[in-house]
Amino acid sequence: MMGAHHAACGAAAWVAVASTAPYTLGWYPVSPLGVVAGALVCAGAALAPDADHHDATIANSLPPVSQWVCDAVGAVAGGHRNGTHSLLGVAVLTGVAWAAGHLTVETEALGELALGAGVLSLLLVAFAAQALRLGGNRRLHAWALALALAGFVTVAAPTEWTWLPVAVGLGASVHVVGDLITTGGVPLLWPWEPRPPRWWRRTPVLRDVWRSGGNVALPVLGSAGSWREWLMVVPVGLYATYGVTTAVAAGTLTSLGYDADAVLGRVVELAGAVVATAAVIGTAPLPG
User: pTM above 0.90?
Assistant: First the structure.
């Protein structure tokens, strides 16, 4: 799956899990600001498994730091689509985020600061900004966005840092699933990579699910960048945009003293009524 598509899926997954707006699951509810910040962090985490490749998009997100990180990760993970694309890789990335949340420093002016969470968020948001072109084509804009959100996380995380490993684990899982449903597949059980027997490799369909190199795939999207992938990612991207926009609106309404849930619920009801009316008009027989 292409980098920007991984990021869009990560953001959409966070919206579905963490938002309480209509058409979301709300399994891990956070504040509207947490939805926006978490969507960017989760989008970056959905790119993190590709940190095993020095030529990946994220390697050029915050040079030279991102390039150093990718070189180091690639060396440990055994190259591209190995360790970071496995269940173990997801667990390690989640553990790193959990540990980062505990790395704090005490200051006189601002009190306790979540230094580890801030640094990790800096990298992840930069990954997302680069893939989604949130800063245009200028790296300075990506740095500015990443620094701004990392600063927020650094100050706010000591009191509610627990969302960070959830966002990172979710994003990494989304990446692995995204590559699992392409023809290349992933080594889910790495470092154990069992190879299929010869009869399996000679059987159509089966050889596409358990590949000769040991990867597992359910290639419903075909090759990376296929029209099927684009067909899937368009509604996913729209859903992520809806979730982030709704969170911004909810935060604004709350700051103005309104009941955000009630207002947004009413807006959704009105939108549904408009769509239903338009559908009725559109299917009504023409006179004469």
Answer: no
